[in-house]
Design goal:
alpha+beta; seven-stranded antiparallel beta sheet; about 35% strand; globular
Length: about 170
């Protein structure tokens, strides 16, 4: 059976409720922290390293919750939300591959911000290149990511690390 290679918002919401990969396995956060509206492409091969790739999108409108509070009179999407979306996608990829456990962001290497998302923007596009997947005592995904707004790259992140844990009691 082949894996699905794209997901709608409703399917991503199913993932946030634990209905996509099964109870106790990788979940996306629920709105408002879900920073993805759709996955337009996901694969086990391809990408910069031949180990998998994800392309996802977020529609921007001036009513998004963060514009009202970050910053008053100078609305901009917080950079940490774009970074979190990249971690969300690496964790989703692990669940999509069939690995079990709850996802947790474990860090990143260098992150660069050289642009911003304003309420006048239309669409954010995330591109994730899987560098390595390890499945031993810990399941770990390592990736590089970028974020573009209306076609212009504005963030990059190296060494994105997400782990899956069968128990988070001692985490």
């Amino acid at each position: 059976m082949s894996k699905q290679n794209a997901y709608t918002r409703e399917e991503l919401l199913k993932c946030s409720r634990g209905e996509l990969f099964g109870p106790g396995n990788a979940q996306l956060p629920a709105p408002n922290m879900l920073m993805i509206d759709r996955i337009t492409h996901i694969s086990e091969t391809g990408g910069r390293y031949g180990k998998g790739e994800i392309v996802a999108e977020l529609d921007i409108n001036p009513d998004l919750w963060f514009f009202a509070c970050h910053f008053e009179g100078d609305p901009v999407m917080p950079g940490c939300l774009g970074l979190d979306a990249m971690w969300q996608l690496v964790g989703f990829h692990l669940g999509w591959l069939g690995y079990e456990g709850k996802g947790r962001a474990l860090g990143s290497g260098e992150v660069k911000f050289f642009g911003q998302v304003l309420p006048t923007a239309k669409k954010v596009t995330y591109t994730i290149h899987i560098k390595r997947t390890i499945n031993r005592s810990l399941t770990l995904g390592i990736a590089e990511g970028s974020m573009a707004v209306d076609g212009r790259e504005i963030y990059t992140a190296e060494g994105l690390r997400v782990g899956l844990f069968t128990s988070t009691d001692s985490f």
